[in-house]
Predict the structure.
Amino acid sequence: MQNPKRTQTQYGVTMIEYLIGLGVFALSLLTPIPPSNKSVFTMLEEAIKKEHSAYMYATSLPRVSDDGSLVSFKKEKKE
């Protein structure tokens, strides 16, 4: 027969292990890396901003059809 107190203690220890692991992971993301003196989180943030600005630029360009003419998305009035 299992001791119920022992089972509850094991669950509490597991929660502490997860919290320590989460703390180490967060610290590793926020610690500056020597060559650039930026954290991994900062470098990731800059990369996302750069890619997003490139995407916004590409979506702002006019659409061109296969024959080289501009494509219009305006709805034509039907009478």
Observations:
- The first helix runs from residue 4 to 30.
